[in-house]
Amino acid sequence: MAAEAAASDDRVIAESRPTVLGTGVTSGTRTEMPSDITAHLMHGDTLLHIATANPEYVMFARSDPAFAEALTGSEIVTVDGAGLALAMRMLHPAVTIERFTGVMLTHDLADISADIEAGMFLLGAGPGIAEQAGAILVQQHPGAVIAGTWDDGTPRAEHDAESHARIRASGATILLVAYGAPAQIHWIHRNRAALEDAGVRVVVGIGGAFDYISGNVPWAPSLVRKLGLEWLYRLAREPWRWRRQLVLPQFVMLILIEFIRTKGDLPRNAR
Ligand code: UDP
Fold this sequence. Notes:
Blueprint (H helix, E strand, L loop, with lengths): L1 H13 L4 E2 L2 E2 L7 H12 L4 E6 L1 H9 L1 H8 L3 E4 L2 H10 L10 H15 L2 E6 L4 H12 L4 E6 L9 H11 L3 E5 L4 H15 L4 E4 L3 H5 L8 H5 L3 H8 L4 H4 L1 H24 L1
Parallel strand pairs: 3-4, 3-8, 5-6, 5-7, 7-8
Antiparallel strand pairs: 1-2
Helix pairs in contact: 1-2, 2-6, 3-4, 4-9, 5-14, 8-9
The chain binds uridine-5'-diphosphate.
């Protein structure tokens, strides 16, 4: 059983990743990943960084080498955004990909926490939000262990030491970081060694997941979600996001160019 678990753990970590505009994405189904994560929590003694990527991540990585390095350094990159899922299907039709958002991952980790009594630490988000999200997670996943929350810090280095001390004291092995992108990815990359030393085995940047789980930010209507237009709904509710979302049309153009280029390559490669 232990050997089986360790083998499955290695599979995830060592897997080569298909890329979208240079960003590697971990293939697999939503049901495979949680069992790999559980195996790592039970038997792993290193830190597993799971990044939940969307088109903005891909575009950040193209313009910010430090972000690209941090993302490449993460052991698992899940497909969070609908635009990235579509791009994967266009560019890598043979690869199995399922969307695995920060919210889904948070719920799955709460299930795992309940199953194996692994403590979760909820870092970041607005005042009281992580605590509210934690209470809801325990309600929906009885037995989930919220080992601690801290919303008073920031992703800036001056708060690193206090974050480490609080996480270590909590005994959590699962850490959810809600500092938004790109800050949470930089934060996790910078703090990797300290987190591993503090006993954390799985760390995830989950963006606005606590805002949704706590009910402070409403879900987009289901039709909007089905159409993959959450970004548009979010833009309508939070217009200050327009500057960040300027990269999205550029993402679409680059994907179309890549799609045409790779389709054009196929006959040549096949020869
Ligand atoms: N956040 C935070 N401190 C910061 C920046 C962001 O706690 O300095 C929190 C914010 O309150 C929200 C979460 O990070 O709960 C995600 O932010 P955002 O929605 O911008 O991230 P995205 O999901 O778009 O990456």
